């Protein structure tokens, strides 16, 4: 019996490996202050070379000085990581400022939050009418800046007057109800690069596929979608009763999760990885009311995704999703990266830590799937060695 | 200005009052041990005279001895409250035992939990096949015992195999998917009294209305529905991020809430109040994972409901919902009540306590809508005084 077991082990030890190049996580929240210190180094730990950094600090990032300062501080914490910076779309931005930022190359895009839908979004915009920002979108289109959309309509579910009129907006239809605004933006700015961030519904996946279906061969992607790691795993059932899984947009139904998995694993060039990793201290997740929205996945970002690709026998498409598609959309040639170390995905069981940070202090973050065993791990290789 | 204000105050002080008779809460969880000691007296504080007590203790209540002992302990804690007792449907019950319990008059009904759907339901039944319990239902029908259904199919949302086959069961469709089982039970036992407990969906409300639409005038209700207080207020948006509002079945969409409000305020005799008040210690609600399902409303049960009826100008129908319909369905003549004190609903602002129990101990329960101000309050009157 022992011999048989050891034979099996020997067979199993032919570990599978995949070179993923320089993976990009095109939607990360690295916060500021001590939280920034804690999570920024975990970008690389999680197998990510390029991080597209969200601007929803307090106050939001809306000036050239602040975005440069923020980037500098991030690079000090993680010198081998390439940080792509963004502005926060709000009335403080002007077309002139955006033009100048584009010319200086300090930002790659601008993030648009509907007011009030998620963490630090109170200064966001009204997605029912983007027209006030059209002069900015003109400048962005001209300068190849990317518009990153948090694609949800603000909730009206507690507006009782609407109950008998049109369907109120609630957490489950907030994203589908946003899609007409995406389509209109694309019609009005056909060359503006737009990303519908952290898609959670089949409707959103279908809308982005539909827009891309009219692209001619060789034409670059203008409207893309990011998909997170955690939305490949969870549904609304996993959110209710588990604040650790609560984020905006909330995870939806099994049919939606399946659409996300199909899109991510398809290899199609307009779907790519953006983890939306959004750390909160444990105290803000272990509450009976007012839990903060956000799931932290950064320290195992690629490993989580690999888990799902493996389950659906699509590991051959993983590099497209986590590296190639996003880098192509953002025009990230190798000479724009701080470091050309590559990630190797290795079949190797390891446990997700229960916490990162220092136990006994306030600065404790619980990762997604704490203490669960993942089958895939990452290691960095230097191809010039 | 001051004079004007005091005139207004004088006008406002013509407080409205409504006599509600002896209200019945036909679905309560009073637990056991110290929690039972804490919450049982709050049944009366909340304006409830008759409480229909759920049997999901650990172990569940399945014997005549235990149900009598439980009732005795409850009566000691609240001598003026009438407790109607139930068995827990599971394979430990036999037709003979149920017949004996009915003859002794120690139970009014039997609660059926699908296995695994809520707190202490691991011993529940498979709602895909009730046939094993048909001999018990025969005895119940004969003896006018009520079958109280937790109307949800167990979840299959994480069974990936089903994703491309039939629609998986998740927290949002679990109740609608149960309705065919309700209809079949009613067809197979047309005289068995059945309550679809704590309805949360328009589909459930419509199904019960449909069943009753074929009743001839004067024919008693056989299939009824209870509606909670909290489901008249909240939707899924209020549950995600607020574990205090997490219960099973979870609150659904605005259109569902509106159907519940319309049903409750309609005065129709097959809809009545069952709060499903389900206390948990605060520690079990303030968690980042594995939050306990249940909302505690008992200490203001009637006041919460009154709030909604007032908002929709339906206070004239409140007594039907909280008193008359339920008492009629359960054949509760006055001589079956322990006390004939009546409840007066009074327009009087008061704040929901943040907690009940003893701060600094484990035994702390947070009520629904903590620290919010309610416009209606209850007071007891003795009509023989």
Tell me about this structure.
The structure is a homodimer of 385-residue chains. Chain A is globular and about 55 Å long. In chain A, helix 5 packs parallel to helix 6 and helix 8 packs parallel to helix 10. The N terminus of chain A is likely disordered. The first copy, chain A, is built from 12 helices and 14 strands. The first copy, chain A, is α/β, with parallel strands linked by helices and 385 residues long. Chain A has a 6-stranded parallel sheet with strand order 5-6-7-8-9-10. In chain A, strands 1-11-14 form a 3-stranded antiparallel sheet. In chain A, strand 5, helix 5 and strand 6 form a beta-alpha-beta unit. Chain A is 30% helix and 16% strand.
Largest sheet of chain A: 6 strands, parallel
Strand arrangement, largest sheet of chain A? 5-6-7-8-9-10
Q: What's the end-to-end separation of chain A, in Å?
A: 43 Å
Structural class of chain A: alpha/beta
What is the subunit organization of this protein? homodimer
**H/E element order of chain A:** HEEHHEHEEHEHEHEHEHHEHHEEEE
Mean pLDDT of chain A: 93
Number of strands of chain A: 14
Please state roughly what percent of the residues of chain A sit in beta strands, choosing from under 5%, 5-15%, 15-25%, 25-35%, 35-45% or over 45%.
Answer: 15-25%
Number of helices of chain A: 12
What share of the residues of chain A lie within helices? 25-40%
């Amino acid at each position: 019996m022992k011999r048989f077991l050891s034979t099996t082990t020997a067979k199993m030890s032919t570990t599978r490996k995949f070179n993923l190049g320089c993976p990009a996580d095109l939607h990360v929240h690295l916060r500021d202050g001590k939280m920034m210190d804690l999570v920024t180094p975990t970008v690389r730990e999680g197998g990510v070379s390029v991080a597209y950094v969200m601007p929803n600090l307090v106050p939001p990032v809306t000036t050239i000085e602040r975005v440069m300062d923020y980037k500098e501080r991030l690079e000090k914490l993680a010198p081998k990581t390439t940080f792509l910076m963004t502005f926060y779309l709000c009335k403080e931005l002007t077309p002139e400022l955006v033009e100048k930022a584009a010319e200086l190359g300090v930002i790659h895009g601008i993030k648009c939050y509907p007011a009030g839908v998620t963490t630090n979004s109170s200064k966001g915009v009204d997605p029912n009418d983007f027209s006030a920002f059209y002069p900015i979108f003109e400048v962005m289109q001209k300068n190849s800046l990317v518009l990153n959309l948090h694609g949800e309509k603000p909730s009206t579910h507690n507006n009782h007057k609407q109950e008998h009129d049109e369907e109120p907006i609630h957490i489950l239809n907030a994203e589908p109800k946003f899609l007409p605004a995406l389509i209109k933006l694309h019609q009005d700015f056909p060359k503006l690069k737009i990303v519908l961030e952290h898609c959670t519904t089949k409707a959103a996946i279908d809308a982005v596929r539909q827009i891309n279906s009219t692209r001619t061969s060789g034409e670059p992607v203008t409207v893309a979608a990011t998909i997170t790691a955690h939305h490949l795993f969870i549904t609304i059932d996993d959110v209710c009763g588990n604040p650790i899984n609560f984020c905006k947009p909330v995870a939806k139904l099994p049919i939606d999760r399946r659409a996300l998995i199909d899109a991510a694993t398809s290899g199609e060039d307009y779907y790519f990885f953006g983890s939306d990793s959004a750390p909160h201290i444990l105290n803000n997740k272990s509450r009976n009311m007012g839990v903060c929205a956000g799931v932290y996945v950064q320290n195992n970002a690629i490993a989580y995704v690999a888990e799902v690709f493996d389950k659906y026998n699509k590991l051959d498409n993983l590099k497209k999703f986590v590296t190639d598609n996003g880098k192509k959309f953002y025009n990230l040639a190798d000479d724009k990266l701080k470091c050309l170390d590559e990630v190797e995905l290795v079949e190797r069981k390891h446990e997700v830590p229960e916490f990162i940070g220092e136990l006994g202090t306030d600065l404790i973050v619980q990762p997604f799937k704490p203490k669960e065993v993942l089958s895939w791990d990452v290691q960095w290789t230097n191809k010039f060695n």
